[in-house]
UniProtKB/TrEMBL annotation:
One of its GO terms (molecular function) is GTPase activity. This is TGS domain-containing protein. It comes from Desulfofervidus auxilii. SUPFAM superfamilies: P-loop containing nucleoside triphosphate hydrolases (SSF52540), TGS-like (SSF81271). Residues 247-320 form the TGS domain. The lineage of its organism: Bacteria, Pseudomonadati, Thermodesulfobacteriota, Candidatus Desulfofervidia, Candidatus Desulfofervidales. Pfam families: MMR_HSR1, TGS. InterPro entries: Beta-grasp_dom_sf, DRG, G_OBG, GTP-bd, P-loop_NTPase, TGS, TGS-like. The keyword Repeat does not apply. Signal peptide: none annotated. Gene3D superfamilies: 3.10.20.30, P-loop containing nucleotide triphosphate hydrolases. Residues 12-66 form a coiled coil.
């Protein structure tokens, strides 16, 4: 019986030939196995690919024992760094393409993303850095994935409402624990990560009912946002929740006698004081700071002291 392989398989086969690392080759082999139709004509080919996959796993494990593996360090930019987490084909890459200028590959088969891909998402007058990550699969996680997730300021977990979101959620929690990451409580020996959860494909038939059932069991102190990347549903709301949970605020600087700079706000931690802001502007200004004046919706140039706690979108004039 002929194999009758689809065009996507041959495209993946080309990727395999061009792959430079063992991890890349392994990811592409998993992709090829997922794409390949299951019938007698593909039995021998499937067995051969599985043998190659087993050999690659052995080679990677051997390499781990003798040499540190590949690692990625994504320099933080913007108001915060957010790493996307989810199963294959839940819409992570499509979301990145929709809200940033990054161009991760998007396909209807899994394991398309094999390296971290950063992009900047605009939100009002700032930008937030998003990182598209390889899928958290049951079988294999790239060794460097945990490092990137642990360094991120926030995790965005994306679920697919058309494919048992509860199963995805439970398994993502398990995989994160294996990477020494907790999102529900602070635990000794684990990295605690603030998290936002997005339930994608709310536009699919029956997805509203599935979301309502899933939400009815949701007793966690985590935001759960129904979205559709394809139909652009609730993406602005999701961006707002992400900003809120980064725990940062925007402060606009104003020089004495001049108009405030409303184009590029300073980004500082929520709960910061006038003195914290002055140190962010310049160490010498902080050292010589006497007081400041504040403008916002309630205050009009009020004089405040160094320990005054700032709020989002305050306009600040530092006086030395």
């Amino acid at each position: 019986m002929p194999a009758n392989l689809p065009p996507q398989y041959y495209a993946a086969e080309k990727k395999y030939r061009e792959a430079k690392t063992l991890q890349e080759k392994m990811a592409v082999l998993e992709e090829m196995l997922m794409i390949m139709p299951k019938h007698k004509g593909t039995d021998k080919l499937r067995a051969a690919l599985r043998r190659k996959l087993a050999q690659l796993k052995s080679a990677i494990e051997a390499k781990k024992k003798t040499k540190k593996g590949v690692s990625y360090v994504i320099e933080k930019e913007g108001a915060g760094q957010v790493a996307l987490v989810g199963f294959p084909n839940v819409g992570k890459s499509a979301f990145i393409r929709k809200v940033t200028k990054a161009t991760p590959e998007v396909a209807d088969y899994p394991f398309t993303t094999r390296i971290p891909i950063p992009g900047m998402m605009p939100f009002e007058d700032i930008k937030i850095q998003l990182i598209d990550m390889p899928a958290l699969t049951i079988e294999y996680i790239e060794p460097w994935v945990g490092d990137v997730l642990r360094r991120a300021d926030l995790l965005l977990i994306m679920l697919d409402l058309t494919d048992d979101p509860l199963y995805q959620w439970e398994n993502i929690l398990k995989r994160l624990e294996e990477l020494k990451i907790k999102i529900l409580e602070k635990t000794i020996g684990f990295f605690f990560k603030k998290t936002v959860v997005a339930a994608n494909k709310i536009d699919a038939p029956g997805a509203n009912e599935i979301f309502e059932i899933f939400q009815s069991f949701w007793e966690l102190d985590l935001p759960l946002i129904p979205i559709s990347v394809e139909k652009n549903i609730n993406l602005n709301m999701l961006a707002e929740r992400i900003f809120q949970h980064l725990d940062v605020i925007r402060i606009y600087s104003k020089a004495p006698g001049k108009k405030p700079d409303l184009e590029e706000p300073f980004i500082i931690k929520k709960g910061s004081t006038i003195l914290d802001f002055a140190e962010k502007v310049h160490r010498e200004i902080a050292a010589n700071l006497k007081f400041a004046r504040i403008w916002n919706k309630k205050l009009n140039g009020l004089r405040v002291e160094k320990d005054y706690i700032l709020q989002d979108k305050d306009i600040v004039e530092l006086r030395t």
